[in-house]
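Many introductory courses stop at the sequence. We go one step further.
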Amino acid sequence: MEFYLHYKDKKLTMGAMWIFNAKLYFWMLLVFISIILLYYLLVGIEAASIVAAALVGVLLRDIGTFRKSVRNWPLLNEIIDWDKAAALMEKNQAAASVPRTSP
């Protein structure tokens, strides 16, 4: 919901989606590269290549999802009830900030 509200009055682009998710991709790439290096050192190039192919697959899947999102954004922007979306986000943030007590 935060993502939609952030781009309510802005044009959504592929670059904007990568930037919005930059922290996630940083950690994902760090983990994948670490695994690739570990597999290369311990098992060999074949195993490292399989993990590298999985990384490429993940990135290609995300590029496809981002392209669809950018293409569909004008329609979504028109049909989303922004007042209701903002109210739901505020409600969820308020619920998340309430400390829970143990039973």
